[in-house]
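lol ok so funny story. i was supposed to be doing the assay writeup but got distracted and ended up predicting the structure for this chain instead. priorities right. anyway since i did it might as well share w the group, maybe its usefull for someone
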Amino acid sequence: MTTGAITFSSSNHITVGDVRVFNEERDYYFPILQEDIDVNPALQGHQHTGW
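and the output, tada:
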């Protein structure tokens, strides 16, 4: 599994050195926190599969 290398060469320039590889499709998405779903019922049913 490759995690990637990040280089900060200035305050507004970031270089990502390696290709990032994720083992599962869900890793490409952030989970929706349950507390956010509780506050906004419109989010119910929109959690990505795997989270």
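The CA atoms of residues 4 and 18 lie 5 Å apart. The chain has a mean pLDDT of 76.
back to the writeup now i swear
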